[in-house]
Amino acid sequence: MIPFLKLVAQDIQQRFGNDLSDIAIVFNNKRPITYLKKHLADTYAQAIWSPQFFTIQEFLGLSSNKEQVSPLTQFFYLFDLHNDLLATEGLPPEPLEEFYPIAEIILSDFGQLDYDLVDIDHIYMELYDTSRIDIEFQHLTIEQQEFIRQFWQSFHMAGHTGVQQRFLKLWKRLPILYKKLKAKLEDQHQTNYPTIYRNLVEGTMDNPDFVASYKKVLFVGFNALNKAEATLFQRWQEEERALFYFDADTYYLNDQQQEAGLFIRRNILQTELINALGNPQDIIGQRKDTVHLYASTGKVSQTKLLHQVLNEQEKEGKSIAILLADETLLVPLLQSLPELKVNITTGFPLTQSPIFGVLNLWMDVHEAISHFKRTKLPYQYLETFLNNPMTRVSATEKKANQDFINEKQLFEISLQDIAINSSILSDFFKPLSDNKQVVPILIAILDNILTSLAQDTQIKQIDANLLIETKKVLNQLQLGFSKIPKLSILFQIGLIRKAIVTINSAIEGDPLDGIQIMGLLESRCLNFDQVYILGANEGILPKVSSGVTFLPNNLRRAYNLPILENQDALTAYLFYRHFQYSSDIHIFYNGIVDESSTGEESRFIRQLEFESQMHFAKHQQQQPIQFPPVATELIIPKTGAIWDKMYRTFIEGGRRISATALTTYLASPLQFFLKHVAEIKEPPSISQEFEMNRLGTVIHEVMEKILQPYKGIEDFTPTATLKDKIPSVELLVQQEITSLYHIESQSIDDFNSLQHIMHKIASEYVKMYIQYDIDNYQSFRIVELENDQDYTMDFPIQIDNRTETVTLYGIIDRVDQVVTDLGEVKTRIVDYKTGADAVKFSTMEKVLTSNTENKALVQTLFYTYVFEQVTGHRDLEPHLYVARKMREEGTLFYGSYGALMEGEFLANQKEQFVDFLRTTLEEIFNTEIPFKHNPDTPIYPSDPYTLFYRNAVSADEEVTD
């Protein structure tokens, strides 16, 4: 089919010949201008005098000599005028923070009423009975009067509620506010487009003869006309000053049920505008082409699927457009497209740029500091600042700050501890000294970023555009803020966010070459060989909601103002018109039902499928089942350099093997290798989850401070004396947490939430340990306490049929002697546990052969053995203080059949343990047994070594020949 704009070019040539210099051609937007110029050049195939091209607003703007005022300036005018009205009514002024959302609606409504030439006094009139409706609205149809009666009925019945009273007062005030705003603009020699439209119709424009400057004005591709446009177009047609080119198809134009033809039917039948192209053809109704419909497995998956489809299509010599029914898909689309030339006029949003990341973070920081009076910030704020490429923090300073956070495990960072010297934004975290600094500092941030980018390399056009546009908006805000004496920082930041989130920058390419990316509205008048429509879901195409307004639907109907059905009709037209020309159409929608999607294609698609002769080929994207590639399990043989290092380190070098290293090997020989042979350390990190190991550190340190005064005393001390220690526990815990996290603390009020939790738990656990000793023993004496230096011993093992020696190392938390209530003296080795450890076990054989069975028992027997061998003490009883269970289960280990680990039974278990210890150590140094992960060991999400042994398989999964 011949494209619409080419038909227009051909008609222009036939009507006006070669001299088009006094012809004005007007579009709804700029995009079609380039295409019509190309079609004119192709049609004429020679040099001609070019017509003049305008958008509708540019063209009508020729009628005014006044300055166009920005929405932000209008808002500040409206704010002052509204408070003046409140003062005359004896009411307090409205705070700017509260008035802003109302002002947005008022300005939008004022604009709509101007475009549709509605009598301001009538629509805002306060009516209370139907007789006044009959009198005041005789000019309206019976149906329109009924709409007004329905609206006011709720206000008339049984008096008015408080909300209704406020609404009525606002309505009564709005006509006055409207007139005062117009007077203010006139006084400032300013105007806006709605005012220009109304002035043109009413004949009060500055340049009444601006249309006469042209022999003919051509309005191309218009569809939904407001009343002002319809009145002007009708007048200019009657005066033979204008021609109209409508892009339509009889398929939806002649069928009254087709919403896509609603507005063009009005233009032709009611407004009586004549289509310069004559009667349209029936193209859609005759087409039997195949349309491809793709149901994707998610919203973003549409862009991935499009990538695949594009790669499969023949593109040579074809014009191609990707139309975004859902414009939020732009960024995922850019990330998914193959390496193709693109031209994007929807614009790249500021919100997707690192520039916005910097501005938004600054606003988050200073909301917290200024409004919430915080002297500490979440560590994520600093992390985000350090990682944003726009801040230009040096690698050295970035690492120093991250190490500082990790070392002290700072969930919150004091402002005094934040020092960024290398960044271009070194004062980023500095508190504001004045509320008026908000906008100037943001402007300074943009200037610093722009200077930095320009010095570093050639600045990307998109970044430059975003920086300039954002600075323009901030300057407008600064001008408005400067006229208001007191504005809270919170409100300024809120308004700045609202003002900048809509900023975008076009990613310009060649509009006549490559893939054109645009929204549906921007595709007016344009035709392409291949069209790909993304986001064609019901609820998006068309949208299910309209803009916020103070003009209820019944009144909008009464005054023929736009309603939701009008929006549907316009969207339907924008969608249908591509079926008139494009030979290859692909439509994508999200086929998954979730909180933001019904999983259904647009009803427009279903209508075409049902009514037209086109065939819809449906493609269902299948979520691929990801079978991981057959990965080789990581197995480390004890040969070559690995064995040499093991031998040098543990045999010749005498590196000590601890109980923790032993249980690490039992759980995962591969992890033992990674930690103790390869020495791959866990990366530093900060977690907001509660950390049991740090809780254990605090408890051990506090217990040591409480019991230290009793160490070395030969006589037994009554356990009752420990009661005097309980009141000091909370302070001791506070001191330990302060030391552990390297913070300054005068009280627990200085702690963050997790430190508060730690303080509470540690205090209760320590008190529980002390109370247990008081309740169960008469007296005690401390033999050893928190010694991690003195308990090492040589342990002979067989390696390759020869005797070698390894060094065992025991950390002794506490060894004591206690007198029971029966007068019996026991020597104990005590270990404190804060987790889910247990004193109960099934059998010693299972403990020693399982990698998961009571790790605490293995460790405690290890400590017991080392201590006994080093000191000569015998008959030590291993005790485990498990805070969660010790009141009910005691502290002595016991088997599932009830036998306690004491006396002869304990002696037998110790012998078994020594044999097990020797066997395990010999296995560690057995060159025939490689290091590999035990797949039966539970893997926790926090395990940093997971990547190394994720492919481990259990013995029964191994395939044998």
Automatic annotation (TrEMBL):
InterPro entries: P-loop_NTPase (IPR027417), PDDEXK-like_dom_sf (IPR011604), PDDEXK_AddAB-type (IPR038726), Restrct_endonuc-II-like (IPR011335). Residues 656-935 form the PD-(D/E)XK endonuclease-like domain. Gene3D superfamilies: 3.90.320.10. It holds the Pfam family PDDEXK_1. This is PD-(D/E)XK endonuclease-like domain-containing protein.
